[in-house]
Amino acid sequence: MQFSNSVPIYLQVMEDMKREMVTGGLLAGSRVESVRVLAARYGINLNTMQRVCSELEREGLLETRRGVGSFVTGDWERLSALREEMAQTLVETYLKGMAGLGFSRLEAAERLSGEEGDGGQSAGSQRAL
């Protein structure tokens, strides 16, 4: 995993693990590798990985069972809500980025649906570069 310097590493690892949870890479109710194994896999400090797991547990996404290990929550509703939250964040990021380029919400939506009809030159986007 390539880390960005602009976001704390633990947040980037959390996002990656959340993505794995909502896409099926980490199945609901499944056992998660040990903190040591996860730290080695991500190439991060053990304390950083412990923070990731603690935060995911605080958010209700991981459950720790003493002497057994950590497990992805079996709460399908929580995982579904997480998926929707992540999707909404992506949509908002896209719309803000398109607005920054001068596109209206409608023009941004047309780009997504491939209904540009006018060769990609909507009335609002016909300006000199």
Describe this structure in words.
A three-stranded antiparallel beta sheet has the order 1-3-2. Helix 1 crosses helix 4 (76-100). Helix content is 54%, strand content 8%. Strand 2 and strand 3 (69-72) form a beta hairpin. The protein has five helices and three strands. By secondary structure, the chain is mainly alpha-helical. Mean pLDDT is 90; it is low at 122-129. It starts with 8 loop residues before the first helix and ends in a 16-residue tail after the last helix. The protein is elongated and about 55 Å long.
Distance between the termini: 36 Å
Give the oligomer, counting copies of the same chain as homo and different chains as hetero.
Answer: single chain
Which class best fits the helix and strand makeup? mainly alpha
> Total helix count?
5
Q: What's the alpha carbon Rg, rounded to whole Å?
A: 20 Å
Mean pLDDT: 90
Number of E strands: 3
Low-confidence stretches: 122-129
Rough shape?
Answer: elongated
The residue fraction in helices comes out at: 40-55%
Largest sheet: 3 strands, antiparallel
H-E order: HEHHEEHH
| Proportion of strand residues | 5-15%
Spatially, the strands of the biggest sheet line up as: 1-3-2
